[in-house]
Every structure is written in structure tokens, then in C-alpha cells.
Amino acid sequence: MDKLLNSASVTASAEPILQRVSRDRPFHWLSMGARDFMKAPVPGLIYGLMVVLLGYAILWGVRAEPFLVLTFLAGFLLLGPLAAMGIYESSRLLEQGRSVSFMQTWRAWRDNPVVIGLYIAFLSVIMIAWIRFTSLMLALFFDRLPAGLQTSWSSLFSTVEGLGFLGIFMTSGALAAVLVFMTGAVTLPMITDRRGEIIDGVVTSVRVVLQNPAAMAIWAGLLAALTAFGFATLMLGLMVILPILGHATWHAYRELVHW
């Protein structure tokens, strides 16, 4: 019994061995993600639908005040990675040759409530900081909120003030996205797989990105492009895109992090 306990302790505390991969590997991860989605489409579609419906709810809430689009995007960036945890569990089960149902994928949340809560808090701090920074920049660059911005979407693209806001918004949003990607590239798959601590996942994610800058830059670009395409379909395409990206992220983790 003592030997078994010691073995489990060593396994749980083992340091990950990070792999270097070629820059074309993200396309392989996508193909593997699509394969997993085809094997277990129902859980993925349910998670995709949940995110889309929540996205519509947030968008409806900010429809009258375009400035609150920040809140919509921040909320969506929080929802996506968390919903993907169920997708990671699907891929984990498929990897073991087991059948997958939607209820089985809830293990990811059931077994890691504290760690997930801490990660939600971590992402929330980044998103709140992004919103506050953008608001501060608006206050510094403009005497008042651009005319009509609170009630009309068109003023975002048809006025100097609106374009200035978009420039600040996109720049700060890109920086926030880079930070989220670097600290979360493999964090949630690692938590799902190892039930470890959030700090270990964040540190491992940063190390993975720094060790594979070309491959991870392409992977980040694919994530952004496919998500943008999903938005362009009035978010309906995200029902399929998000599950595929979730499965693909699991395969990225498996290839990049060995134990």
C-alpha cells in the first residue's frame, strides 16, 4: 500500500517534459480535433450550443449600448475556455477507447471545482483589467464619450472618435488575448488530465509557447481566424467550430506535454 501511495505521489508531482514541434503541427491538431468531433458529436454540439446561446444572451444585454461590446467579448472569452473543459474530457475518454456521453464529460468540473474557480478568477482579472484600461484610454484621449457611441453602432465606424476608440480597443484586446493564450495554451487540458494546480498549468503553458514560438503563433492564428469565422456566421458556426477547437487543443496538449 505504501509503495502504491508513493508511486501515485511521484506521478502527481512529476515535472512535465515539454516537446518541440514543427510549425505545421497545428494543422494536424485540427484534423485530429475534427476526427474526435465526428466520433462523439453530441457532447460537442451541446457545449457549442450552450456557448452560442449564452453569447446571444450577452449580446442582447448590450445591444442598446455599443460601448458595452467590451463586456460581451470579455464574457465570451471567459465562456469559451470553460465550456471546452467538457470537450477535453470527451477527448480523454475517446483516447481510452471509452464511449462518451454528455453527462460523463461533467467529471471535468466535478473533480476540479476549486482549481476551476481560481482559473475563472484569473481570467476575470485579465478581462476586467482590459475593460478598465480601455475605459481609461478613452477618458485620456477624449473629453467625452464619442457622440452617439452609446446608442448607435454606426458611429464606431463613421466618426474619428469612434475609429480612435476601435484602435485602442483592438490594440488592448490583442494584448489581452496574447496574455490569455500564453497563460492558458495547455492549462485547462492539463488540469483535466492531471487534476493539478492552476499555477503549474499556467507556468507550463508559458513554457510551451516560448519553446515553440512558430507553431504556437500559427496555432493562435488558427484559433483567432476560426473563431472570427464563427462570429461571422452570426455565431451559429461556433456550434461546430468550438468543439473541434476544443478537441484539437487536447491533442496539442498531448503532443506538447509528456509525463
The average pLDDT value, as a whole number, equals 83
Report strand order across the widest sheet: 1-2
Poorly predicted ranges:
1-12
Q: Could you say which structural class the secondary elements and strand pairing correspond to?
A: mainly alpha
- Provide a count of the helices: 12
Radius of gyration, taken over Cα atoms and rounded to an integer in Å: 20 Å
> End-to-end distance, in Å?
23 Å
The coarse silhouette is globular
Approximate strand percentage: under 5%
- How many E-type strands? 2
- Determine the fraction of residues in helical runs and give it as a percent range: over 70%
Series of secondary-structure elements, N-terminal to C-terminal:
HEHHHHHHHHHHHE
The major β-sheet equals: 2 strands, antiparallel
In words, what does this structure look like?
It is a single chain. The protein is an all-alpha fold and 259 residues long. It is built from 12 helices and 2 strands, in the order H-E-H-H-H-H-H-H-H-H-H-H-H-E. The longest helix has 29 residues. The protein is globular, with a radius of gyration of 20 Å.
Key structural traits:
2% strand, single chain, 76% helix, 12 helices, two-stranded antiparallel sheet, disordered N terminus, 259 residues, mainly alpha
